[in-house]
Amino acid sequence: MNSLTLKENGFVDFRPLKGLQLSNIPENTNSVIIIADTTLIDKSKSDILYIGKTKKLAKRIFGGYLAGYGSKTTQKIHATLFNEGYIEKAAISWILTDDPKATQQELLEKYKNEHDNYPAWNVVKKIDTKPQKNTKKAAKPQKNTKKTKTPVIAKTVKKVIKKRKPSRQNYKKTT
Questions:
Q1: H/E element holding 95?
Q2: Is the separation of the CB atoms in 29 and 57 below 8 Å?
Q3: Looking at residue 8, which CATH number applies to its domain?
Q4: Is residue 152 a part of any domain in this protein?
Q5: β partners of residue 36
Q6: Which residues contact 99 (CB under 8 A, 6 or more apart)?
Q7: Is 159 part of a structural domain of the chain?
Q8: Which residue in 96, 101, 102, 116 sits closest to 46, CA to CA?
Q9: Bigger pLDDT: 137 vs 64
């Protein structure tokens, strides 16, 4: 899977991120995004750097990837684009879809099957390799007490009443 095969499957032509204009992007549409490295096109290695999904394409590209707002993954992509010089060589493409999550998963699995790994910028969820601790505690024996505890509200009411009533010791006889 590379950028050339994606064009055959309905993705729009790749557009450089550096000169991208808002007028070239559809608004508020469910989409799957592909970011590719233009220096790797027509090479044996795949040029796809990232496969993502979004409900608002323009906001994700301009607010997320180019401005740096969003989740950790979006902020990492922004940092990589600008700190490592990928803004000069990265291009973006998308496909409109009714179910972006399913389409993204399908593309990620297809990529993984062909390349034995996910694209370089996709975050791989860590699998917990630590052994699970036994979190169940032994049950404590129940105390058999016949005392009934005063409800919390009743205790609070008693405290308020005690504060309002002055004690008899504080009264002075005035006769």
A1: strand 90-96
A2: yes
A3: 3.40.1440
A4: no
A5: 48, 91
A6: 30
A7: no
A8: 116
A9: 64
CA distance 81 to 56: 20
Hunting for tokens 């996709």 — which residue is that? 122
Give me the sheet containing 48-54, strands edge to edge: 15-16, 90-96, 31-37, 48-54
Token readout for 59 is: 């906001």
CA distances from residue 29 to 33, 95, 108, 155 in whole angstroms, order as listed: 11, 10, 20, 58
Indicate if the pLDDT at residue 38 is higher than 60: yes
Please state, in angstroms and rounded to a whole number, the distance separating the CA atoms of residues 152 and 3: 67
Q: Which domain, by its residues, includes 72?
A: 3-115
Domain count, the chain: 1
Share of the chain above pLDDT 70, in %: 68
β-strand partners of 93: 34
Distance CA 66, CA 6 (A): 23
Contacts of 171 (CB under 8 A, 6+ apart): none
Q: Which residues of 64-84 are buried (b: 16+ CB within 10 A; e: fewer)?
A: bbbeeebeeebeebbebbeee
Identify the residue with better confidence: 159 or 57. 57
Identify whether 108 is part of a domain: yes
| Within-domain flag for 104 | yes
